[in-house]
Amino acid sequence: MNSTLPTNRRKKAVMGAALAGVAVLGMFATAHTAQAATGDRSGARTVGIARTAGTPYVINHYGEENADRGRAERSPAHLVLSEFTSIGKVNWQQWGAKKAVGTGKVTGTWCLDTCLDKPLKATVTLSDPKTVDGRKVFTAFTLKLSGNPGAYDSEDLQGKRPLATG
What does pTM read for this prediction? Predict the structure, then answer.
């Protein structure tokens, strides 16, 4: 019997935990393209999206300054979907009164060994706008990985999930 097997498993578990910590810190510590609370990120790409006063925001916890309370944004280039999942380089095709749809690169603690350096292509749909603290915000998301992403065991990839709203 190989006596190094438990040691190797421990090393892998420690490495996975360390990578998860680094990914979470990196996600929150890197603040790209600051935005005013009612403006759009200059780094976001959109395709002819019209907005009105009633167009919802999303509460985004991306960047160190937004990690705790979040920031109301429209069409962010990078978006924290949950404590385990984020999407970057988002190209928004739609940002309307009932839903927002964009494509980008997704990563999370659930795929650190495979997607830390190569994020997965995905489509994100934000939905269920509600008024929170006097501001209309999206309160749910669904995520669909593109192509043949492999099998990942993550709640964030299963159906509609709640978004932080404050």
Answer: 0.70
